[in-house]
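Input structure tokens:
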């Protein structure tokens, strides 16, 4: 049985613990400075509680560590875990800067351990099917990818670390946009950005935003100094265009824009709703347009995606090698590069060229 430790017993820490349990990975110990939360977590998942990151990493009964803490701690804990000889499953975003990404990759190289990025959307049943279809060449040459994730009222913990730039590195772009950027580039195999343009806005304030439904509750009187909406475009060296449309909050009527990825190629297209049990394919037959619904057998897409991520981590630990298609440190760095270019473009008001 794979034995791991967990740093951070927050919202996603729980999701990881449940997925680990389902796939037969043992969480041996957890650390979180919120002692009470840790105790409850320890009882719920029958694991030990370590009083510090150092003591958790010093254990010789864990082979890997999940880093599931606020973004400003990712680099520090990922590097410490690798230096302690542990394999790492690092939540997204990889870090707060490209420099930190490079430091994490250097630590991985020095340790010889596995570093897996928490790009869980790659494991959604719909995304896995889409990747197969694209790899069979059914879409031809990919020309355009449109990736959308629009929430009406979905700012995580408004006023807390998510909305405090110094702790998160940014708003909806670095939070949920990173999933879309990674998935769009992964599915289309367009991994060489040439030009990036981005516009980031903050429409809502702590006064105009009403908490509706979100797993993280607001922090009264807290900071909100990040964007809640991003429109961005990227052109790959091959000429393929990618468009990103992301919102934590918007005045758009519900379901105006469908969440997911739309991929257009020279032979066909795919419309992929990540959490659905079907994807739609457009193609031509004797010159006439055809639409095909491809059903996907699943029970609960979100759980299945996390199970896939955990099976990949367990396999990575067992073989000391990441499964093909699992997010690597280089993938995390590439996403960070695009995120930084979008923020830089927004700052200066025009396109950024990659050199
Ligand atoms: N993959 C996904 O779909 C997904 C979803 C949500 C969050 N995330 C990512 O996971 C990370 C955590 O997000 P969350 O929603 O669980 O946030 P959260 O605020 O619910 O939980 C973070 C936890 O980290 C703990 N923590 C803070 N400082 C710590 C320290 N020094 N040592 C150990 N623990 C510490 C906090 O006490 C808290 O319990 C973030 O990087 C976020 O971007 C990923």
């Amino acid at each position: 049985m794979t034995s791991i430790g967990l740093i951070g017993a927050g919202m996603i820490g729980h999701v990881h613990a449940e997925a680990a349990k389902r796939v037969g990975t043992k969480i041996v110990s957890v650390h979180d400075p919120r002692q009470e939360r840790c105790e409850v977590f320890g009882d719920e998942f029958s694991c030990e509680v370590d009083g510090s990151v150092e003591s958790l990493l010093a254990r010789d009964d864990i082979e890997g560590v999940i880093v599931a803490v606020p973004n400003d701690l990712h680099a520090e804990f990922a590097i410490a875990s690798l230096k302690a000889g542990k394999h790492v499953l690092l939540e997204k975003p990889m870090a707060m800067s490209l420099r930190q990404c490079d430091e994490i990759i250097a630590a991985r190289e020095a340790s010889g351990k596995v570093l897996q990025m928490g790009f869980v959307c790659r494991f959604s049943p719909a995304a896995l099917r889409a990747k197969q279809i694209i790899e069979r060449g059914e879409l031809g040459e990919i020309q355009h990818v449109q990736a959308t994730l629009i929430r009406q009222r979905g700012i995580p913990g408004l006023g807390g670390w998510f909305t405090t730039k110094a702790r998160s590195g940014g708003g909806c772009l670095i939070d949920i946009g990173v999933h879309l950027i990674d998935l769009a580039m992964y599915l289309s195999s367009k991994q060489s950005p040439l030009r990036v343009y981005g516009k980031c806005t903050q429409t809502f304030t702590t006064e105009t935003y009403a908490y509706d439904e979100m797993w993280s509750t607001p922090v009264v009187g807290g900071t909100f100094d990040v964007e809640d909406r991003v429109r961005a475009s990227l052109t790959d060296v091959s000429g393929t265009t990618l468009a990103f449309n992301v919102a934590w909050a918007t005045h758009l009527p519900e379901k105006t824009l469908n969440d997911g990825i739309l991929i257009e190629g020279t032979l066909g297209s795919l419309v992929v709703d990540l959490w659905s049990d079907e994807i739609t394919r457009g193609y031509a037959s004797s010159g006439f347009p055809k639409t095909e619904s491809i059903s996907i057998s699943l029970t609960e897409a979100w759980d299945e995606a996390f199970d896939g991520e955990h099976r990949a981590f367990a396999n990575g630990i067992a073989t000391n090698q990441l499964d093909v298609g699992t997010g690597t440190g280089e993938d995390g760095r590439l996403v960070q590069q695009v995120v930084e270019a979008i923020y830089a473009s927004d700052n200066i008001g025009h396109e950024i060229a990659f050199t």
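The pocket of nicotinamide-adenine-dinucleotide is lined by residues 7-13, 31-34, 37, 53, 68-71, 73, 91-92, 118, 120, 175, 216 (CB under 6 Å). The mean pLDDT is 96.
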